[in-house]
Amino acid sequence: MNLFKNLQKNSNDKDMKIDTEKFCVYAPMEGVMIELADFPDDVFAQGILGKGVGILPAVGEVRAPFDGIVYNIFDTLHAISLISNDGLEIIIHVGVDTVELKGKGFIKRTQNGAHVKAGELLMEFNIKQIEKAGYKAATAVCVTNSDEYREFNFEEYGHVYVGQKIFHVDK
């Protein structure tokens, strides 16, 4: 199985092209995908913000998980919300309690209202700086409008790469 079959580098190193399918979410970062129930923060582990997955990041980059619009970049830069062209509403929350860092170790690479393509760089973060400050860099990827979908189909947990399908939903 070629994990990179749907990835194509653009001339710009910061972005890549990902061939997408409707109602699919692609890995926004490289790392180890875990079940949300195993996420080290109860708010996410209990599914309070919606269904999804956790990713233990190997690289400090957040990339668009689908084609859509940047709905909100939190002032503290630790989280970003997006809406796919299909209506999926996603929050990507980098770290556990990293709101306390007040943006230190995070760099935004997009803006609210931006139209983005899957694989486009949205944010960078310094994993070592987050961990040195005493926080975990574990990242939650949750569908905040989960109740609008009847079924979630998760791919195999384990190591994932940017652009690899991590789950899809059925209306």
Automatic annotation (TrEMBL):
GO terms for biological process: phosphoenolpyruvate-dependent sugar phosphotransferase system. Its main location: cytoplasm. Signal peptide: none annotated. It is found in: Cytoplasm. The keyword Isomerase does not apply. GO terms for cellular component: cytoplasm. Residues 41-145 form the PTS EIIA type-1 domain. This is PTS system, glucose subfamily, IIA component. GO terms for molecular function: kinase activity. Keywords: Kinase, Phosphotransferase system, Sugar transport, Transferase, Transport. InterPro entries: Dup_hybrid_motif, PTS_EIIA_1_perm, PTS_EIIA_component. Coiled coil: none annotated. The keyword Kinase applies.
